[in-house]
Amino acid sequence: MPANLERLAVGKIVGVFGIKGWVKVKSDTEPEENIVHYSPWFVCTPHGVKTFEVDAYTLRPQGLVVHLVGIDDRDRAEGLGKARIEVEKSLLPELPKGDYYWHELLGLRVVTVSEKAQLDLGKIERIMETGANDVLVVKGDEISVDDKERLIPYLPGEFVHTIDLQSGQMIVDWDPEF
């Protein structure tokens, strides 16, 4: 099921917990419990999108466990399956200038600039969290210099020079041979 352009996937229901309708949630927010502060949740099941409010949660050693209003037994919780959780993008707090949400960077064209030329390296396909710094996964396409996949450290000021969301482009200093 395709995502709605006005919403953003922020996690997934990955199972049930107990007999009173609680569900285990894999959150993509940081910290992981921030997901419960967005409301409502659009839960994308194989049977359609259902809207829910979170009325309780707990962070356990095994992960985040959530109770949704109206889901009060294990059978109803199991009926949600392994569902994607989306929230309205408008609920996200505004970031300081120069900071970006990952979803804003995905799909940007990456251009490396050297003294000799500008070379299109492709589009940002995904972003990996490595601990030391995030890494952009840039995939070449029919427009780029080649079809290679490149891993570029997301280090503004060092490798990343300019991000222009309006034009859909990121300027980097990266050797195209890497």
Provide structural commentary.
There is one protein chain. With 178 residues, the chain is mainly beta. It has 2 domains: 7-90, RimM (Elongation Factor Tu (Ef-tu), domain 3, Beta Barrel); 102-172, SH3 type barrels (Roll). It is 5% helix and 46% strand. It has a 7-stranded antiparallel sheet. A hairpin with a 2-residue loop joins strand 5 (54-60) and strand 6 (63-68).
What's the CATH architecture of the largest domain?
Beta Barrel
What is the structural class? mainly beta
Task: Just give the CATH class of the largest domain.
Answer: Mainly Beta
Low-confidence region ranges: none
Helix content range: under 10%
Total number of helices: 2
What is the H/E order?
A: EEEEEEHEHEEEEEE
Basic shape:
elongated
Fill in the CATH topology of the largest domain.
Elongation Factor Tu (Ef-tu), domain 3
Radius of gyration from CA coordinates: 20 Å
Tell me the name of the CATH homologous superfamily of the largest domain.
RimM
Distance between the termini: 36 Å
Strand content: over 45%
Q: In total, how many domains does the architecture comprise?
A: 2
